[in-house]
Amino acid sequence: MNVDPGRQLRAIARLTVSIRLAVSALVLAAILLTAALSSLLWWRTAEATSRQLASTINEQIVAAVRKEVSAIVDEARAAHTAIRTLFLQNVLDTREADKREFVFLSQLQSQATISWVAFGWPDGSFFSAHKLGDRRLEMMEISLTDHAGQRRVDEYDVVPGDIEFANRRFEPTEFRVADRTWFKAGLAAEEPQWFRVMDHPTGERPSIAFAGPIDVYQERQGVLAIMIEYTRLARFLSQLEVGRTGTAFIIDDSGELVAAPDKDADELHPAKGDTKLLPLARLALAAAGDEGRKRASRSRLTSVGAAYEVALAPLPFHGWSLATVIPEAEFLGPVEATLRRLILGLAIGAVLAALASAMLARSVIAAPLSRVVGELRHVEAFALEQVRRHPSRLKEIASLSGAIAEMAAGLSAFRKFIPADLVRSLLRQGVEAKPGGSIQVLSVMFIDIAGFTGLSERLGDRVVPLLSRYLDLASEVIVANGGTIDKFIGDAVMAFWGAPQPQSDHALRCCRAALGCRRAIDASGLADDLGQPLQIRIGINSGRMLVGNIGSELRLNYTVIGDAVNVASRLEGANKSYGTQILIGEATERLARGAIITREIDSIAVYGREEGFSVYELIGLVGEDGIGNEPPAWVGSYAQGLAHYRARRFTAALADFEAVLSERGRDGPAELMRERCRKLSAAAPDDSWRPVAALTTK
Fold first, then answer.
1. How far is Cα 449 from Cα 444, in angstroms, rounded to an integer?
2. Is residue 339's pLDDT more than 70?
3. DSSP state of 469
4. Can you give the pTM of this predicted structure?
5. Last residue of some domain: 587, 621, 655?
6. How much is the pLDDT for 432?
7. What is the pLDDT of residues 379-422, one digit of tens each?
8. What gap in Å lies between CA 531 and CA 633, rounded to an integer?
9. Which of helix, strand or coil describes residue 302?
10. How far apart are alpha carbons 78 and 223 in whole angstroms?
11. Residue 22, in any domain of the structure
12. Domain total for the chain?
């Protein structure tokens, strides 16, 4: 088979026709690639800048909140220390109402974040100074009787630099300071501690309290508490700028909300801040875990299709964290809008540039291409000696012209090789047209027609159509399974697998091709002159063999040679002795084991070799050919008979082979082995007998 240059040249011609469009496409691709890279770089830079800006804003917010929380904590401690010192130095007695009121009010006014200054006695009495927003204060004293508690409340208006009495009222109360956790723990403690306080004489108001015992002359007088209501924190958070729609939350270690921004929150107005983004803050806090809450972290979360940047930072109060939630659209939205406008502008510019390049390509490339097409016509006609190079100022056309000239030179050199597919493969691999080869492990197959000599004598020249059809079918199957057809020798076909393209499964491919050839011949309806279906014999073997360019400098053949090749040829002929169609060597069986169904036929010594080797009949592929995943039962009977035969138990072997024939009706190997066993049973062999059959012919 000759190399078909027409098909190659038509493909190249189609390529040359599309070069004009390719130039425009390359220009367009270059512009778009540059634009994409530039846009990506700009986007990354803008995104990084925007995120850095958001990070800076967040750091400023964290710093402000940290400062405020620290101030609250410090103010509470300072107020507690100041009042405690007055008690300890006996400057102020816990029961001196006038002095006590003055001191408590002064601390309440001087510390902006403090909501309560309270004192409780072990007998259950309670006194406090309490802010009522920014413009009002109240003094509260609770005294207990045997039956009920009474609360006296004095309200004061805050005026610049002073306070004015407003009114007094008395009312019953069920508040018992001695029942409160903070009081009981503070009374039993040695030093002040922080507590979370929910209920007050005025009702439920979430707060924190710095409370501790007051001892005078080593006698415990009661518990002093400085309390800050969460509403003070909520009002502070409302003063922070967390983007246009972002927000900040203070959350405790259990995920409970401490404060959300609310500008109207105070001791009179409970916090009613917007908490729709609070679930994201809690989700980030839960994901951070215990270790993550000890350091600042950032995460990206989504909710209802929108992305948010959530930042967590620990605050200087045990268990509190600041969570800021900012929609990504706030700092990336302008960037994305600008990017869309940039991409649109670049796209329009790229299209205009592509149109201009197309017009230029038509005028500049058309003439040089026509000359290149003329050289393609020479190649198509296989007038390779007429192909010339055409220099061009256009690098691409000069390269194309050079490539065509080099292709012509390559085709001229490799016309020695057949078939064409093999030549193309060798050209792709850069194999030079000179003798040489290498030792590789490959698989080789021989096929021929049973009784072809007599058939050709009977048919004469009428055998040509039959032979051509048979060779076409075998060739199609071999090529379809990745094989390399080596040569046709009359009715024989030689093919191999694993070269020139490496194939790790060359043995399996070879076996699959053999079964495919058998099916194709059976399905074709080819018959001899007597009307009998055409029968083929196949021999397969694998092993180390020399593969490469074998021949002379004038004529080369890419083929395989070696002992493993000779064995495959002998196995093809051995089918005649055993009445089989496909015999494979033990190396092939080992390489394809697990994917094929076989039976060991015998141990044979081929012509020219003394040592024997196992030969197998290829039955089918696992899971195909209607066989299933396991060999038929008669294969086991044959294997058992072969084992008895080799162990000189000829009578037992005879019974097994009879069982095979009983099940299959006719079986060439079983019939042959049965006859051997009968002869050996009748005349026992001497000690030199070996269970190896010698093939006396090639």
1. 17
2. no
3. H
4. 0.46
5. 621
6. 53
7. 665 566 677 777 776 677 777 777 777 777 766 665 544 454 55
8. 33
9. strand
10. 16
11. no
12. 4
